[in-house]
C-alpha cells in the first residue's frame, strides 16, 4: 500500500469483526515496523501489553467506559510510556548506550555527558519525565496505527478509560503511564464507516506569533 493511501485510509473504526483474529505474525510485523519510530536519544520508552482473551478484555472494558470495541476487537493493546526510561541503570538506557558505542555514535568516555544530558532534560521534574515518556510513546503509537493499516489491520485509539484503575487491575508498575488503549482487528463486512472527520487546514495549522 502506498504511504499516502495508508494515511488517507486509516480511521478510528467503531466496529471489529469478532471472528477474525489478528495473527501473531501480523502483530509482530506491525510492532516491529512501529519500533522504527524516532525517539529522543533513541531511548524508546514504550512497551505494550497485548490482551487477547475475552476475560481480560472484559476486565478492561469495565474500566474503559464500557466501550464495546474493547471486548469486540480481537486484540487490545495497552500502550505504556516509561517515565523512568531515561535513568542511569535502566536496562534500556544501558543497552542504548552500549549500542551507541558499538555503532560509533558515542564514545565510552561520553557516558557521563549522556547520563547528565538525560537527567537535565527529563529528570528536572515529574512533568519533564512525564512529557518525555508521553511524547516518545505518542510517536510510537501513531507509527503502530499506520503500520497496522499498511497490513490491512484497522485500529481505534482510546483515551476513555480510568487510568489508575487500569494500572491497578493489570498490575502495571507505577513507572508507566498509559497514553492510550488501541483496539486492533478487521472492519467487518456489512458495516459502514462513519464519514471522514474534519481536519484543520494548512492555514489553521501554520501559525506565527
Ligand atoms: C489519544 C486518542 C484518544 C482517543 N480516545 C477515544 C475514545 O476513548 N473513544 C472514542 O470513541 N474515540 C477515541 N479516539 C478517536 C478519535 O475520536 C478519532 O481519532 C478522531 O475523531 C478522528 O477520527 P479518525 O481517526 O477516524 O480520522 C481517540 C483518539 C486519540 C488519538
From TrEMBL:
Q: Which residues form the Nitroreductase domain?
A: 8-186
Would you say which domain of life the source belongs to? Bacteria
Q: What cofactor is this protein dependent on?
A: FMN
Q: Give a yes or no for keyword Oxidoreductase in this entry.
A: yes
**Pfam families given for it?**
Nitroreductase
Any idea which GO molecular function terms this record carries?
oxidoreductase activity
InterPro entries per the UniProt record, alphabetical:
Nitroreductase (IPR029479), Nitroreductase-like (IPR000415)
Family listed: Belongs to the nitroreductase family.
Designated name of the protein: Nitroreductase domain-containing protein
Amino acid at each position: 500500500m502506498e504511504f499516502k493511501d495508508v494515511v488517507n485510509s486509516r480511521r478510528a473504526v467503531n466496529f471489529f469483526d469478532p471472528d477474525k483474529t489478528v495473527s501473531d505474525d501480523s502483530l509482530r510485523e506491525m510492532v516491529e515496523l512501529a519500533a522504527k519510530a524516532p525517539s529522543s536519544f533513541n531511548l524508546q520508552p514504550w512497551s505494550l501489553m497485548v490482551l487477547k482473551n475475552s476475560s481480560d478484555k472484559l476486565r478492561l472494558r469495565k474500566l474503559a467506559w464500557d466501550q464495546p470495541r474493547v471486548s469486540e476487537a480481537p486484540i487490545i493493546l495497552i500502550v505504556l510510556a516509561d517515565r523512568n526510561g531515561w535513568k542511569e541503570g535502566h536496562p534500556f538506557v544501558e543497552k542504548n548506550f552500549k549500542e551507541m558505542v558499538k555503532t560509533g555514535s558515542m564514545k565510552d568516555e561520553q557516558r557521563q555527558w549522556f547520563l547528565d544530558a538525560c537527567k537535565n532534560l527529563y529528570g528536572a521534574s515529574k512533568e519533564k519525565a512525564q512529557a518525555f515518556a508521553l511524547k516518545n510513546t505518542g510517536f510510537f503509537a501513531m507509527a503502530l496505527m499506520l503500520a497496522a493499516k499498511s497490513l490491512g489491520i484497522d485500529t481505534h485509539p482510546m483515551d476513555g478509560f480510568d487510568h489508575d484503575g487500569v494500572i491497578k487491575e493489570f498490575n502495571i508498575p507505577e513507572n508507566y503511564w498509559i497514553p492510550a488503549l488501541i483496539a486492533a482487528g478487521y472492519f467487518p463486512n456489512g458495516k459502514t464507516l462513519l464519514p471522514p472527520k474534519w481536519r484543520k487546514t494548512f492555514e489553521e495549522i501554520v501559525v506565527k506569533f
